[in-house]
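Troubleshooting log. The previous structure file for this entry was overwritten by mistake, so regenerating from the original sequence record. Sequence copied from the archived sheet and checked twice against the printout by T.R.
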Amino acid sequence: MIVKIYQRFEDKWFRINEKIRFLLVGSFNTAMSFILYYAFLYFTSGKEQLALFLMNLVNINLSITTMRYYVFHSHGNFWKEYTKAFSSYIVLYFVNVGLLAFFVSIIDLQENLSVASPLQNIPNLDKAISQLCCIIIMTFITFFIHKYFSFRQQKNKATE
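Regenerated output below.
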């Protein structure tokens, strides 16, 4: 029963355009990564680079798994694709480190908010907003890296 329900879901899911699937799965992964980032930001007392590192440790495997299967529907060699995707995420991590440092340096809400603003009471809000800016940029980069590198489907030479 459960298997049949899942198979029906899967049949409908893979009829959805790949870019739409990327947006849906990517939204889920992004929400998870941001929740993890903000939680780690809280537990590390606002150390944004440490929070980013910890978030990536947890979220990379989730992202690889969901992107590999639910977006690109890849059935290639798992370890080969995992290695390529993991190496992509390492590169993306360092891009994110640089972007985060940049955005944290230009977004200073404490300086720009009035003392009476309720936003003053949200810890690390400027760092959270900085990471949101990074996420927007990283989303586009991630799609192209995965589509054309990590989970690229090999063309069958007989069909070319």
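The helical segments are 2-13, 18-43, 48-71, 78-106, 109-112, 125-150. Archived copy saved in two places this time.
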